Amino acid sequence: MAHIPDGVLTAPVLIAGALASAGLVAVALRRLDYDRLPQAAVLAAGFFVSSLIQIPFGVTSVHLLLNGLMGLLLGWTAVPALLVALTLQTVFFGYGGALVLGVNTFNLALPALICALLLSPWLARAAGRQVFWIGALAGLLGVLLSGVLVALSLAASGEAFLPAAWAILLAYVPLALVEALITGTVVAFLQRVEPGLLGVAEATHD
Asked: Is residue 137 situated within a structural domain?
């Protein structure tokens, strides 16, 4: 459940999430790489579609996040791309909600940025099988960090949400393994056919 619905989180958590997301978006727009807008559109569309495929898992459901992949390929541009995709999902399908949009964006965008900042410099120097494993690590890290942030968002809203927070966190573990395989495969494929798409270190660190 990456899309926390409206009416669940407390006002302080909603306000903190909105302010944190606004800060990330403001920085991202100043660092926006216009050359990567076509890739951002494709990846935002991929996130939009993949999030519609919900797989029941215990008391919750899971879906692909792709935020690790977006972080590697887009750097800071991943932040507005995720915001746009989440906003469209809220408007057209009622996923999440308007009030919780800031929290949901932050929970996905911050892990994407962490993946970009930590792994894109390594990826720019990698070759061979290293590329797959860096992509796999990005997929794994993106999902696990998002799971932790979702769980913390729920836990901060009251003790009654602690069981749900733990259940969601556990549900993200198998999802992280699946997404690691997918992201590693995609990154390795791009390295062979279009390695220029992986050169995001400069966009992340400028």
From this structure: yes
* Residue 1, in any domain of the structure: no
**What b/e string do you get for 94-117 counting C-beta neighbours within 10 Å, with b at 16 or more?**
ebbbebbbbbbbbbbbbbbbbbbe
> How many domains does the structure of the chain reveal?
1
Domain CATH code at residue 193: 1.10.1760.20
- Closest by CA to 178, choosing from 40, 4, 57, is 57
pLDDT in 10s for each residue of the chain, 206 residues: 567 888 889 999 999 999 999 999 999 999 988 888 888 888 888 888 877 776 666 555 667 889 999 999 999 999 999 999 999 988 888 787 889 999 999 999 999 999 999 998 888 887 778 899 999 999 999 999 999 999 999 999 998 889 888 888 888 899 899 999 999 999 999 888 887 777 643 434 44
C-alpha–C-alpha distance, residues 204 and 76, integer Å: 6
Burial class (CB in 10 A: 0-12, 13-18, 19+), 53: exposed
Q: Tell whether 20 is covered by a domain.
A: yes
- Give the residues across from 61 on adjacent strands: 56
Which range marks the domain in which residue 137 is found? 11-205
Q: Which helix (H) or strand (E) holds 135?
A: helix 129-155
